[in-house]
Design goal:
The protein is mainly alpha-helical. The chain has 9 helices and 2 strands; from the N terminus they run ααααααβαβαα.
Length: about 250
């Protein structure tokens, strides 16, 4: 949701562990958190501002003038605004989940259901084809068929690269704290994890650019329940919740 009640076409991606993304945004159009931070400011739907006017607004507040001089040694400017926002985003980290503790050999870190779900994640459910590594993402772009049945589908990564194979492809998100980051998919079209599992189970939506790894899975109801138990084990310890904005400089 942006200014004036406008709605964008994409779901806001999680900021959790975003420091580890090779590229930012669903389509990877930003190469860093600093570049990403400036995007929404000038987006006509999100904030509808300009970078120049933003700098003027902040520079007009004595409190921000003092802070920028103290921290960056110079007057307010858009590059340092981006640096400040990115520095905060890099503190939003998730780790030491039950899954992490299990990987370190802690007995009983995962429930029996979650252990079965982990086996499915690594095997039959094919999740680990894309959700790999400590941050559970390959940081690559894949077409799952989401939204491809629309008259004018969002073509995702293709809009950036112009490469035919990238049509309808979007960045693989981290699964850290995934039960708290609904709604899901680039368009927010799936509200709960059960819907996501059903989507993958049926093999996505057929289209000419569907990732070849997206195939029907034939999961049973029990397997889906076990997989959900594993996904819930990915909650970390350190993600700040209920963040309160500090008093704003005047």
């Amino acid at each position: 949701m942006g200014i004036g009640g406008q709605e964008g076409g994409r779901n806001a991606p999680t900021v959790i562990n975003s420091t580890y993304n090779y590229l930012q945004f669903w389509d990877g159009r930003a190469a860093s958190l600093e570049e990403q931070a400036l995007g929404p400011i000038a987006n006509t739907i999100e904030m509808g501002h300009t970078h120049e006017a933003m700098v003027q607004s902040l520079a007009g507040l004595a409190g921000y003038q003092d802070q920028f001089r103290k921290v960056f040694g110079r007057e307010v400017n858009q590059e340092d605004v981006a640096r400040a926002i990115a520095a905060f985003e890099r503190t939003i980290l998730s780790g030491n989940s039950a899954w992490d503790r299990h990987n370190r050999g802690e007995e009983g870190a995962l429930s029996p259901e979650a252990k079965r779900g982990l086996d499915l994640f690594m095997g039959k459910a094919l999740c680990s084809k894309c959700h790999v590594g400590f941050n559970l993402t390959d940081s690559d772009f894949h077409n799952l068929g989401v939204g491809m049945d629309r008259e004018e589908p969002d073509l995702g990564r293709y809009e950036i690269t112009g490469d035919e194979k990238d049509k309808g492809a979007f960045r693989t998100p981290t699964l850290r704290d995934v039960q708290h980051t609904a709604p899901y998919m680039h368009d927010g079209s799936q509200g709960i994890l059960e819907e996501v599992m059903d989507w993958y189970d049926k093999g996505g939506h057929p289209n000419p650019w569907l990732d070849p790894q997206i195939v029907p899975l034939n999961l049973t109801a029990q397997e889906k329940a076990d997989l959900l138990a594993f996904l819930r084990s990915l909650d970390g310890e350190a993600v700040p919740t209920g963040l309160q904005a500090p008093p704003l400089p005047r």
